[in-house]
Amino acid sequence: MAFESLTQRLQAAMGKLRKKGKITESDVTEMMREIRLALLEADVNLQVVKQFTKEVRTRALGAEVLDSLSPAQQIVKIVDEELTKTLGTEAVGIEKSPKIPTVIMMAGLQGAGKTTFAGKLANQLIKNEKARPLMIAGDVYRPAAIDQLKVLGQQLDVPVFDMGTDVSPVEIVRQGMEQARANKNDYVLIDTAGRLHIDEALMDELKQIKELAQPNEILLVVDAMTGQDAVNVAQSFNEQLGITGVVITKLDGDTRGGAALSIRAVTGAPIKFVGSGEKLTDLEVFHPDRMSSRILG
Ligand code: GDP
User: Fold this and answer.
1) SRP54-type proteins GTP-binding domain: from which residue to which, for each copy (predicted)?
2) How many A from CA of 67 to the centre of ligand 1?
3) How far apart are CA 243 and CA 107, in angstroms?
């Protein structure tokens, strides 16, 4: 599971203060040095580490902390609050359209987990709201992606609109949207193509789909295992396409977790969901405060 090593190191860094009655500035400096190393080791973005440690240090050195009866406890609380802030403060759900359908477009590199996420999201919408989504198979470059989406559709009893691999994704989305309107589906989930790397052709295609479908959400799906690359990908998609949220997948894997900790602060885009496994039910709405508690152990 992600963050195991980070949790241990943060606990060790803060635990040392517990044994002391009175905490001095040099104790805080020493703790901050260890926290900084732990975050860097977990692959958190350098700018994020700097900002975070600066905020924690300033607050930890405040008189009300050092003079308090339980300074170590106060510092743990400060670290928790600042970590929550770094992760985004509040859970941000799906932005719904006032008029059906709410259109959600997935974007991301190949293998990030877009198709899987589309299925997981459909499942959650059905469970939570008895939604009637339509999924559009727009990934025509990876033929297996269409079959994969159809299999998910069968499992969930959700219609999947596809036109095979010979029609342009933009046309597929156009006709898929027509079908959704005709059938009064309340959600449209558009699975788009990914590439191994970001290229202009991919971005152009996504921009055309965005223009046509006017999505309420453009969710960028990134793989936590790719570390800082995931952060760079998020930044790049946000600049070029404009994203409304991020989905971090594979947090169940053996990842150091730094990407999950950096994305919000680097890109400004909120993390909306995390994927924690391959099954349809392995999806969690992202809550910054719960994630912070989990990291701090
Ligand atoms: P796409 O190319 O972006 O559509 O990616 P896929 O949805 O096909 O996912 C790529 C691989 O990652 C598949 O083997 C999925 O089962 C796997 N996967 C997706 N999300 C998760 C996750 O949250 N955890 C784990 N462990 N595997 C995942």
Assistant:
1) 270-283
2) 50
3) 9
Nearest to 120 by CA among 274, 271, 14: 274
Token couple for 243:
């994203």
Residue nearest to atom 19 of ligand 1 (CA): 113
Which residue would you say has higher pLDDT here, 34 or 256? Answer: 34
pTM of structure: 0.94
| Closest CA relative to residue 39, chosen from 252, 261, 270, 271 | 261
Q: pLDDT grade, residue 197 (50/70/90)?
A: confident
CA-proximal residue: ligand 1, atom 27 (nearest):
278
Computed over every residue of the chain, the mean pLDDT equals 94
Give distance in angstroms: CA of 288 to centre of ligand 1. Answer: 23
CB burial readout 88-123, b (16+ within 10 A) else e? beebbebeebeebbbbbbbbbbebbbbbbbbbbbbb
Asked whether 145 lines ligand 1 (CB < 6 A), one says yes
249 lines ligand 1 (CB under 6 A): yes
pLDDT at position 1 over 70: no
Q: What is the pLDDT of residues 113-166, one digit of tens each?
A: 999 999 999 999 999 999 999 999 999 998 799 999 999 999 999 999 999 999
pLDDT mean over 102-106: 98
Q: Specify the amino acid at residue 101.
A: P
Residue 141: other Cβ atoms inside 10 A: 15
